[in-house]
Amino acid sequence: MTATIHWFDEVDSTNQRAGAEDFGHGAVIATLNQHSGRGRRDRTWSMAPGDGVAMTIVVSRARLGSPQFLTRLPLVAAVGLVRALLELSPESSTPTVKWPNDVLIRGRKVAGILVESFDDDRLGIGIGINVHRSPGDLPDDTATALHVEGHPGEATDIVSRVADWVLASAAKLDDPATLDVLTEIIDTIGRRVTVEHPDGTMTNGQAVGLGESGSLLVETSTGPVELFAGDVTHVRLEA
Fold first, then answer.
1. Do 128 and 112 contact (CB within 8 A), yes or no?
2. Domain spans of the chain, in order of start
3. Distance CA 43, CA 62 (A)
């Protein structure tokens, strides 16, 4: 389906605005000026007006297939975002996905995703994308922006393309081929990783695959573990 995009001059949070009003499946709330965006674990995500784009895509659980696969949604949304960026600028640096919900270019974060539940049926896929930020305006050397990486798209084109790709990807949430697609595209798989869990504990090992739910399978020194949440660092091996 084609997304219906609602632009706002400014909002506190696109997820908050989407959840507070009666937007249905396929509605997109977008802005270039978000004051109080949030990432996972209640981290703030802020941007100066025009530096980036914030958007929330509303989806209905009833339109996404089997409930057991809803946990795949952040990963599937990230893959849709990657495909949209590739379509917009195929000659630019290739974006990749870091489990569970970050999009990177050349190892630096360009976008993040937060999925929230609004009610018994509606979910919001919140996406924040750095677009115009210059290297000096980025928070640290782990972040980047589309224009820094040679992606010339403008916000209106980006939002439209991302929304259509994410909705198309979400419609295949429980497709048997989806897990294979995720395994192929997610750059974390095959890497040495350090994972910080919500309780502060750490897991070190090699990411070897994904579970049916989209969980990360890690081989550690004491055996295999299955992780359902956490902050992943890709470990760079010494030369």
1. yes
2. 4-183, 188-234
3. 29
Class of the CATH domain delimited by 4-183: alpha beta
- Decide: residue 155, CB within 10 A, 0-12 exposed, 13-18 middle, 19+ buried: buried
CATH match of 188-234 with 2.30.30.100: yes
Q: Which two tokens stand for residue 144?
A: 């980047």
pLDDT digits (tens, 9 = 90+) for 112-144: 999 999 999 999 999 999 887 666 666 667 888
Alpha-carbon 110 to chain mean position: 10
DSSP 169-209: HHTTTT-TTHHHHHHHHBTTTTSEEEEE-TTS-EEEEEEEE
Give me the half-sphere count of Cα atoms (radius 13 Å) on the Cβ side of residue 141.
0
Instruction: Give the three-class secondary structure for 225.
Output: strand
CA-CA distances (angstroms) from residue 135 to 43, 112, 128, 131, 155?
Answer: 22, 18, 17, 11, 19
Mind listing the pLDDT tens digit for each residue in 158-179?
999 999 999 999 999 989 899 9
Contact 131, 158 (CB under 8 A): yes
